[in-house]
Write a structure and sequence with these properties.
Two copies of one chain form a homodimer. By secondary structure, the first copy, chain A, is an all-alpha fold. Chain A has a domain of 128 residues: Tetracycline Repressor, domain 2 (Orthogonal Bundle), CATH 1.10.357. Helices cover 72% and strands 0% of the residues of chain A. In chain A, helix 2 packs across helix 6, helix 6 packs across helix 10 and helix 9 packs antiparallel against helix 10. Chain A is elongated. The termini of chain A are far apart. Chains A and B meet through helix 6, helix 9 and helix 10 of A and helix 6, helix 9 and helix 10 of B. Chain A binds a DNA duplex through helix 2 and helix 4. Chains A, B: GO terms for molecular function: DNA-binding transcription factor activity; transcription cis-regulatory region binding. Chains A, B: Keywords: DNA-binding, Transcription, Transcription regulation. Chains A, B: This is TetR/AcrR family transcriptional regulator.
Chain lengths: 202, 202
DNA sequence: CCTAACTCGTACATTCCCATACGAGTAAAC
DNA sequence: GTTTACTCGTATGGGAATGTACGAGTTAGG
C-alpha cells in the first residue's frame, strides 16, 4: 500500500524533496483550495520540474497531500481511548478530531473537486470505520439511537465538523468554544430521542 | 429593489429571453455547479450574445439564478404555518424546505465559489431570518436549547440539509426517507438536552 | 410601417493553468 | 571518484473558459 514497496529504490535526496512538496501542498491547499501548482512549488521552495518529476499530475499531488493529512490524523486518533461508555468515548474522539478536520477542511474541498467520489471514500475509510464501530457499540449499549441509519449518523457528523470549520474560518465561532459546541451538537444527534418530538399529532 | 424599477424600459422580447436564460441557468447549475456559460446558452436555446447582452459577466448570471431560486423558495415557504408549538412548526418548515434545498444545492455551491460571502448572506437573509425567529420562539417556549448560540443552530441546520442533498445525490439516502431522517436529526439538534451527556466526569 | 431594440453566429482576443522540452549543474551512493 | 539519479530555470505547447467584435437578420411597438 505504502509508496516504499512499489518503488525499486529512491535517493535520500528525492525523499526529502517529496516530503517538502507534500508538506507545502498540505499547507497551501489548506489555505486556498484553488491553489495552483506554481503556488505549491513556490511554497515548497523547489523547482517546478522537481515536482513534476515525482507527481505526474496535479491530481496525484492533491491525493498525496490528502493521504498525508489523513495519515497524520490517524496517528493522533489511534491513541484515543474508545473504551467504556460510548458517549464518553465519542466526546474524547470528537475533542481530538475537530481541530484536525478544521485544519484540513479546505484540503478536503480541493480533493473533492479533483478526485472521484469512490477514491475519497477509500481514503476516509479508516476514520469512518472508527466512528462506525463506536456508533454500533453505543447502539448495543442502548445509549445511541437506532431509528436512523448508521451511515447517516456518520456522514452527518462529518458535515457538522466541516460546518464548524467553516464557522471558525468565517470568524463566527471561536476556537475556544468549538469543542464544547461540536460535542454538544453531535451528542444530541446520536443520542436516543426522548419523546416522539413535539406534540406530534396532537 | 426589484429589477423593474431600475431599468427605464424593456421590450417584452427581452423579458422572455431573460426568463429563459435564468431558468436554464438554474436547471443547469443545479445539475453541474461547474457548468460553463456555453452550457447554459445551449440549455436556454439562445444566442451567446443575447446572454451577454443581459448579464455582463458569469458572476452576474449565477447571482441572478440563485436569487431566482431563493425567490421561488420564498413563495413556497411563506405559506407554511409557523404558529403553535415551535417543534411542530419546525417539522412543517423542514418538510417544506428540504426538497427545495436538495434541488438547488449544486447551485448554491456554484454561487459560493463566485460570489463573496457577504453577498451570499444577504441573499439567504430571508430564510435565515425565518428560521431565526422560529428558534428564538422555541427557546422562549422552553422547548429548544439555549446552551448553544442561535447562529450555530441555524447554520448547522443548513449544513445538515445540504448534507442530506449530497446523500440523496450519491444514492445513499432515499428521497422517501429523507424527510423523516432530516426532521429527526434537526429536532434532536435543537431540542433541550436531557442529561449533561453521558456519564460525564464519572 | 418604420425605427429602435433585440437576437444570433461565428470567430477571435485574452487569460489561466496544466504539463512538457531541453540542457546544464549538483549531490548522492557504491 | 565516477556514475547516475536528482534538481532547476525558463520557455513553450495546448486546452479550456470568459468576454468581445462585427454585421446581418428579426421582432416589438408607437
Amino acid at each position: 500500500m505504502s509508496a516504499d514497496t512499489a518503488r525499486p529504490r529512491r535517493r535520500a535526496d528525492a525523499e526529502r524533496s517529496i516530503a517538502r512538496i507534500v508538506t507545502a501542498a498540505r499547507a497551501t491547499l489548506s489555505t486556498d483550495p484553488h491553489a495552483t501548482v506554481d503556488d505549491i512549488v513556490k511554497a515548497a521552495g523547489v523547482g517546478r520540474m522537481t515536482l513534476y518529476g515525482h507527481f505526474r499530475t496535479r491530481q496525484e499531488l492533491v491525493e498525496a497531500a490528502l493521504a498525508d493529512a489523513l495519515r497524520a490524523g490517524e496517528e493522533t486518533l489511534a491513541h484515543v481511548d474508545l473504551t467504556g461508555d460510548a458517549r464518553d468515548a465519542l466526546t474524547r474522539l470528537l475533542e481530538s478530531s475537530w481541530s484536525l478536520v478544521a485544519e484540513s477542511a479546505a484540503l478536503v474541498e480541493a480533493a473533492q473537486g479533483v478526485l472521484p467520489a469512490g477514491r475519497m471514500r477509500e481514503l476516509h475509510a479508516a476514520p469512518a470505520e472508527r466512528l462506525n464501530e463506536l456508533i454500533e457499540r453505543g447502539r448495543r449499549q442502548g445509549v445511541f439511537r437506532t431509528d436512523l441509519p448508521v451511515f447517516w449518523l456518520i456522514n452527518t457528523v462529518h458535515y457538522v465538523l466541516h460546518g464548524a470549520a467553516e464557522e471558525i474560518r468565517a470568524g463566527r465561532l471561536d476556537s475556544a468554544d468549538a469543542g464544547r459546541v461540536i460535542v454538544a451538537t453531535v451528542q444530541a444527534i446520536v443520542a436516543v430521542p426522548v419523546g416522539t418530538g413535539g406534540t406530534a399529532s396532537a
